[in-house]
Design brief:
Layout lengths: L1 H33 L2 E4 L3 E4 L7 E10 L3 E8 L2 E9 L4 E8 L2 E11 L5 E9 L2 E7 L1
Antiparallel strand pairs: 1-3, 2-3, 3-4, 4-5, 6-7, 7-8, 8-9
Length: 135
């Protein structure tokens, strides 16, 4: 009876460790699929409200790590603002000034139902919505 009880305890411990190991492998797989990828938005061409400033080419990138994504907003190829999004803070507003204009980017994580998370940023120039970037 003592031998049988010891064998049952060892089997239960082994099954528990297999479950923990399987869960760890699954989590690592999801992190590898989601993490360490850089995505880029389309480039939106927006007319500046000043006739002398011409057009602005606005784009964004997301450099996704295991736990967060660094979002960078570009205007005419110049990085003007960056910040991070994560599961704990899936919505953030990043602000900067470009050519004397206030630029706000309301960015958020979006889930299309699959394993990968997308990013969306609505860009405002001097308080007016200018464009929306999904990437």
């Amino acid at each position: 009876m003592l031998v049988r009880n010891r064998w049952v305890r060892n089997c239960k411990r082994e099954v528990g460790m297999k479950k923990v190991l399987s869960l760890a492998v699954a989590v690592l797989g999801v992190v590898c699929l989601n993490g360490c990828a850089t995505t880029q938005s389309r480039t939106a061409v927006v007319k500046s409200s000043d006739s002398g400033s011409g057009e602005w080419a606005i784009s964004a990138t997301a450099n996704a790590g295991a736990m967060s994504a660094k979002i960078t907003i570009f205007i005419n190829g110049k990085a003007i603002v960056s910040g991070s999004l994560s599961q704990m803070k899936p919505r953030q507003t990043f602000s900067a000034t470009y050519e004397g204009k206030k630029v706000d980017a309301e960015c958020s994580l979006s889930n299309d139902g699959g394993m990968m998370l997308g990013h969306k940023c609505v860009i405002y120039i001097d308080g007016k919505q200018s464009t929306e970037l999904s990437f």
